[in-house]
Specification:
Layout: H1 2-29, E1 34-37, E2 43-46, H2 48-54, E3 71-73, E4 95-103, E5 109-120, E6 126-135, H3 137-170, H4 172-189, H5 195-226, E7 232-235, H6 236-246, H7 248-254, E8 257-260, E9 265-268, H8 270-286, E10 294-302, E11 313-320, H9 330-333, H10 352-362, E12 366-371, E13 377-384, H11 389-392, H12 404-413
Parallel strand pairs: 8-10
Antiparallel strand pairs: 1-2, 1-6, 3-4, 4-5, 5-6, 7-9, 10-11, 11-13, 12-13
Helix pairs in contact: 3-5, 4-5, 5-10, 6-8, 8-10
Length: 415
């Protein structure tokens, strides 16, 4: 028996030495700093990445120093292992990804994530702690850039809200007065005006009316985000029935045929879904040319591709047999105040599809169009069946806001 033990001990020692060499090789090859801490809380060993980050030439400069002098907690973090000592049994525990500042100079700190794992001997006695330090300077810089961008976006959103308030009241009030006084001039003094004067008055009234419609369209566009309501379960079949009721007069006037297949129930904002379908169907009824309008509305579900995150989506198709358009204009199709036809040919402000695009963006979806001149158009709206709560709850702004002022100027200059 004694001879067996004597033969076994060298073998165990060889295995232990081999494991230690493996462990040392792994630690030294790691790109993240690794610090071995003694039970007393002093530095017992470090790897090359630690020396590089702390700006030390040799590990002897660090050995024996209290490890807590190199760390301070940030972001309100606190942890019982602040001194990394293992004498108290309650302190013997692992921890992961605590945000700290790693001191690399008297007044210089590097943001880092700190993880620690206690290692023990064969009998289970704590021998020290292995600390893994991950430099997150780059991540912090990106967070700062993202926060700065969000602040600018919030400021832009506030400006848009202020502009919407002006558009809804301050700008529309003078327009109403111009139109009202123009009506009074025509009704009370129209007989004394010659044909040229009446033509000028009529142009003035029409311009004021167009400007008022532009302001209302712009207000609707801005309210997609600024006056948004919470998402709820929406039966799209009910939405389309309500839209068809609203468009009843135009449907009868154009003798249109609307074919609607069974639609789905999704998580969305009901009013915005109504606006979306009303704009798409309204366009189909408007741009029909000399033909009897035939509009088809259908949808189908589509699963997320394998290996990607996300839930099922709903694809809604709105197809018509109208005049269509050249696809070279696709880039401007969904931009604010963009018209593919003259005002004398078709009424409108060029905001309908821009509003559709903004609604779809807010719901985390997309809208596409395909067409050719004289062959109708097909609009494809892709929306998630279920909204991502973290991503979409409380979202206050989507889409492009900053170019709005330039678009308004260009629209006004065309009048």
């Amino acid at each position: 028996m004694d001879s067996d033990r004597q033969r076994t001990k060298p073998m165990e020692k060889m295995r232990a030495d081999k494991s230690n060499r493996y462990f040392e090789a792994i630690v030294m090859s790691m790109s993240d700093p690794v610090i071995i801490v003694s039970p007393e809380g002093t530095i017992q060993d470090v790897n090359k990445a630690t020396l590089s980050l702390l700006g030390c030439g040799k590990e002897e400069e660090l050995l024996g120093l209290p490890v807590n002098r190199f760390f301070c907690y940030c972001g309100g973090s606190a942890h019982v292992l602040l001194d990394f000592r293992l004498q108290t049994p309650s302190r013997i525990q692992d921890f992961h990804n605590i945000e700290v500042l790693l001191r690399i100079g008297e007044d210089v700190g590097v943001p880092a994530l700190l993880s620690g794992s206690v290692f023990r001997d064969i009998e289970g006695k704590a021998m020290g702690t292995v600390l893994l330090v991950r430099d997150i300077t780059e991540r912090k810089c990106m967070e700062e850039q993202l926060n700065a961008y969000m602040r600018r976006l919030e400021q832009s959103n506030r400006q848009l809200q202020e502009f919407a308030a002006v558009a809804s009241h301050d700008l529309q009030e003078p327009l109403r007065k111009i139109k009202a006084f123009g009506d009074l001039l025509i009704s009370k003094h129209g007989k004394v005006f010659n044909d040229e004067a009446m033509d000028f008055l009529e142009r003035m009234r029409n311009a004021a009316e167009r400007m008022q419609i532009l302001m209302e369209s712009l207000l609707t566009y801005s309210r997609v985000a600024t006056k948004a309501e919470p998402f709820t379960s929406v039966d799209l079949n009910k939405v389309i029935r309500n839209v068809l009721n609203d468009l009843e007069w135009r449907i009868k006037q154009t003798e249109a045929e609307i074919r609607v297949k069974d639609l789905l129930t999704i998580e969305a904002e009901p009013n915005q879904m109504h606006q979306l379908f009303q704009n798409l169907l309204g366009n189909a009824l408007k741009f029909h040319g000399d033909r009897k309008p035939i509009v088809k509305v259908s949808c189908r579900t589509r699963s997320s591709p394998r290996g990607t995150l996300g839930n099922e989506t709903c694809r809604i198709y709105v197809e018509d047999n109208g005049i269509g358009f050249d696809e070279k204009y696709l880039e401007r199709l969904f931009a604010p105040f963009q018209r593919l036809h003259g005002r004398n040919e078709y009424e409108g402000t060029g905001m309908g599809l821009a509003i559709c695009n903004r609604i779809v963006e807010r719901h985390g979806g997309s809208i596409e169009a395909s067409s050719s001149p004289g062959n109708g158009a097909r609009f494809t709206v892709t929306l998630p069946l279920r909204q991502n709560r973290e991503e979409f709850s409380g979202r206050s702004t989507t889409g492009s806001q900053l170019p709005l002022y330039d678009e308004v100027k260009r629209a006004n200059s065309k009048q």
